[in-house]
Amino acid sequence: MFDDAELWDRHRPRGRCVADPAVLGLVPTRNGIWLRELDGAGRAG
């Protein structure tokens, strides 16, 4: 399931699904769910 149109469009370059969700800028959670990393998340400063 994709939460926005941009991610939906980017997940199928050349008509095939990408094999690695990290290519889309997604990061895995401990549950195996892939989420979009927030800008500056977890960074001190």
Model description:
By secondary structure, the protein is α+β, with helices and mostly antiparallel strands. The chain is 13% helix and 13% strand. The chain contains 1 helix and 2 strands; from the N terminus they run H-E-E. It has one helix at residues 5-10, and strands at residues 26-28, 34-36. A two-stranded antiparallel ribbon has the order 1-2. The protein is globular and about 30 Å long. The relative contact order is 0.15. The model has no long low-confidence stretch (mean pLDDT 76).
Structure summary:
The protein is an alpha+beta fold and 45 residues long.
Shape: globular
Integer average pLDDT: 76
Question: What fraction of residues sit in β-strands?
Answer: 5-15%
Structural class assignment: alpha+beta
Please, how many helices?
1
- Major β-sheet strand ordering: 1-2
The sequence of SSEs as H and E is: HEE
Rg measurement, Å: 12 Å
Low-pLDDT sequence parts = none
**First-last Cα distance:** 33 Å
Give the total of domains: 1
Query: Helical percent range?
Result: 10-25%
**What does the largest sheet look like?**
2 strands, antiparallel
> How many extended strands?
2
